[in-house]
């Protein structure tokens, strides 16, 4: 029998991930934000402030909200026409069928909503959300998020995907998940069968450090790719986790080695109690610039910021062009010919 998921201050103390003196503070954090560290990730933690522990072990700083932090940092609530739907962009929408995750990140931008009490959309709510998607033919892409969609039962997941498959205007389905690194054992035949769709389906893995790509995680990802499911990766730039050229390079290379194409590197969303993870944008741009030429373009993610309040996601990566000059990866400037069209 595998060890249990760590969910309480007592469990964290017993596992050596928190001192007994911190119990009262950890209980106060737990009253506000959920904790869950499954065995696959707990086994990777050497101490609470290492790159894995820092992401998942509760910390007293979570009780302090900085002036710039928001309860709903990217404006989900303002763009939710019905429960479970977020419609921020004209041609795509989020479907959040549950607000439960196998692991709770201490920097989560939905941390005010996710947790064991978040639960599932009930059948009536799910039907209403699917009906909204069916009634809006401009929606070509549906992104399943939450919570973690791969934490659903295969039966419920298959029901949702079948409903989306039946919508002629939906041409792309995307699933955002941490399951392959957090609970890789869930990627079994039943779940893989549930992911069979006629509509092109993409799985986007959330991983922030190379050590998360364990042999079990790579086996789970290989099972997905064997079913013909393309794999993308998204990561959050986090202080003390991946905020050095070496750590970021290791992560991008580990993703590629697991057949996952790095897709997005997110600037941290300013959710309450997350200040200790903040990396200034200028520093993030320098990190990406340092990696240019060191890693293949296949490993190069788009560095993005979700504008607070719901204005949308924009690229904020390093610039290489200044008029008719272009900067190479070594920092040298070169003139480039860019003639106007003839005639």
Automatic annotation (TrEMBL):
It comes from the Bacteria. PROSITE patterns: RADICAL_SAM. Residues 87-299 form the Radical SAM core domain. The keyword Heme does not apply. Belongs to the radical SAM superfamily. KamA family. It is an enzyme of class 5 (isomerase). This is Lysine 2,3-aminomutase. Its cofactor is [4Fe-4S] cluster; pyridoxal 5'-phosphate. Keywords: 4Fe-4S, Iron, Iron-sulfur, Isomerase, Metal-binding, Pyridoxal phosphate, S-adenosyl-L-methionine. Its EC number is 5.4.3.2. The modification N6-(pyridoxal phosphate)lysine is found at residue 313. NCBIfam families: AblA_like_2 (TIGR03822), KamA family radical SAM protein (TIGR00238). InterPro entries: Aldolase_TIM, LAM_C_dom, Lys_aminomutase-rel, Lys_aminomutase/Glu_NH3_mut, rSAM, rSAM_sf. It comes from Endobacter medicaginis. [4Fe-4S] cluster binds at residues 101, 105, 108. It holds the Pfam family Radical_SAM. GO terms for molecular function: 4 iron, 4 sulfur cluster binding; L-lysine 2,3-aminomutase activity; metal ion binding.
């Amino acid at each position: 029998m595998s060890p249990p998921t760590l969910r309480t201050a007592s469990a964290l103390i017993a596992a050596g991930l928190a001192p007994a003196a911190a119990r009262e503070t950890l209980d106060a954090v737990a009253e506000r934000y959920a904790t869950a560290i499954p065995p696959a990730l707990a086994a990777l933690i050497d101490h609470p402030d290492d790159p894995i522990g820092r992401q998942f072990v509760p910390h007293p700083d979570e009780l302090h909200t900085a002036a710039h932090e928001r309860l709903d940092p990217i404006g989900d609530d303002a763009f939710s026409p019905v429960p479970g739907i977020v419609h921020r962009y004209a041609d795509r929408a989020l479907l959040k069928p549950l607000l439960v995750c196998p692991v709770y990140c201490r920097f989560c931008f939905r941390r005010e909503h996710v947790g064991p009490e978040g639960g599932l959309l009930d059948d009536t709510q799910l039907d209403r959300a699917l009906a909204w998607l069916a009634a809006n033919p401009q929606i070509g892409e549906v992104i399943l998020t939450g919570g973690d969609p791969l934490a659903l039962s295969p039966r419920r997941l298959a029901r949702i995907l079948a409903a989306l498959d039946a919508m002629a205007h939906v041409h792309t389905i995307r699933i955002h998940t941490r399951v392959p690194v957090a609970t890789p054992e869930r990627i079994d035949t039943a779940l893989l069968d549930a992911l069979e769709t006629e509509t092109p389906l993409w799985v986007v893995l959330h991983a922030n450090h190379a050590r998360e790509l364990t042999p079990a995680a790579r086996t789970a990802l290989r099972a997905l790719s064997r079913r013909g499911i393309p794999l993308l990766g998204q990561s959050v730039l986090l202080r003390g986790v991946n905020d050095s050229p070496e750590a970021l390079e290791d992560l991008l290379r580990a993703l590629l080695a697991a057949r996952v194409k790095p897709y997005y590197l997110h600037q941290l969303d300013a959710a309450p109690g997350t200040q200790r993870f903040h990396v200034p944008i200028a520093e993030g741009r320098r990190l990406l610039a340092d990696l240019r030429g060191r890693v293949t373009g296949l490993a190069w993610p788009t560095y993005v910021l979700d504008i607070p309040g719901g204005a949308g996601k924009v690229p904020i990566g390093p610039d290489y062009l200044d008029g008719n000059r272009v900067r190479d990866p070594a920092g040298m400037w070169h003139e480039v010919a860019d003639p106007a069209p003839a005639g």
